[in-house]
Amino acid sequence: MNASSTPQGYGLLRLGRLSLLWHRRSLAVGLALLVLLGAAFVFCLSGDGLGAGQAIAALLGQGDPFQQLLVRELRLPRLCAGVLSGAALGAAGCLMQTLARNRLATPGMVGLDNGATAFAVASIVAVPTSLAPSALALTGAATAAALTFLLAAGAGARGYRFIVVGLGIGALFGALTNLMLARADIDAANAAYPWTVGSLNARPPLAVWLLASGLALGLPAARLLTRPLTAMRFSDSVAIGLGVRLGAMRIATLALSVALTGLAVAVAGPVGLVALIAPEAARYLGGQHGVPVLNAALAGALLTLLADWLGRTLLAPIEIPVGIVMAVIGAPYLLWIILRQPSGRQP
């Protein structure tokens, strides 16, 4: 490909025999989101009499010991948990919406969040170890995905049938979670509470590290899936004609969505509406081009970070869990999608 044949809106970089083609607007949006995320991170580190410069100095191990304790031990782990879980949910939502060709088909809508939550709560009530919530949240997300996919009977993996079955599976797991909490003793119920509403307060370090490792592997894998997923936005016959192996792609996409969702829920609980809003924001800003999984991850991280900041400061010293803040923000948006979505329009 030469410069004269580069499609409009794209850029071309040549490195010897290798060439890299990118969409200019998508790249600009990604860089802008990255800058905003960095600014929001520093902003959330500061506050309460701590300036941005002081927060950065404390982060680097300089300055007052109390400020270092505040930034490095209290605020930094919470912000890292928010960035990582938001990025995982944003990427998982983008993959799931593209797979189902429906803007409503997020992990929360098809039961993955509730499945992961139910298994995480069960691990706290029955097996109170630091690893159990992370491992069983992943198992719960996989179980919910398998049930939804099997009950939707293959073709139902696209469109509203998949969503309706997922809502039923999610309701079942939600009922099981409530039953376990009702029968648990007060201490176990209090320990499990953050996994039912979504919270970034005092997250288990092991779960955060597992999520970071999952993202380090999952985001590059998701990026590799974007080209065949772009073809899968058309009819199955067109995708097959373009060389896409539909069965393998659906399994790989679903497995990756399950892994990212389960690891995110193990850290932050069911903050599911991030997976609804972040991909849509990435598509809108990028001009509806392709499958913007990386931009959706950045948008999800930024959204979660700002929602957690609102929850901490809006009614301070009372803290509102990030899941509740996202529900307040996302519920009107969900209603807008349902009321305004033109018939047959897909992501």
UniProtKB/TrEMBL annotation:
One of its GO terms (biological process) is siderophore-iron import into cell. The keyword Secreted does not apply. It comes from the Bacteria. Its main location: membrane. The chain crosses the membrane at residues 81-100, 112-129, 135-155, 162-186, 206-225, 254-278, 290-310, 322-339. Keywords: Cell membrane, Membrane, Transmembrane, Transmembrane helix, Transport. GO terms for cellular component: plasma membrane. Gene3D superfamilies: ABC transporter involved in vitamin B12 uptake, BtuC. InterPro entries: ABC_BtuC-like, ABC_transptr_permease_BtuC. It is a multi-pass membrane protein. It is found in: Cell membrane. One of its GO terms (molecular function) is transmembrane transporter activity. The keyword Protease does not apply. Belongs to the binding-protein-dependent transport system permease family. FecCD subfamily. This is Iron complex transport system permease protein. The lineage of its organism: Bacteria, Pseudomonadati, Pseudomonadota, Gammaproteobacteria, Pseudomonadales.
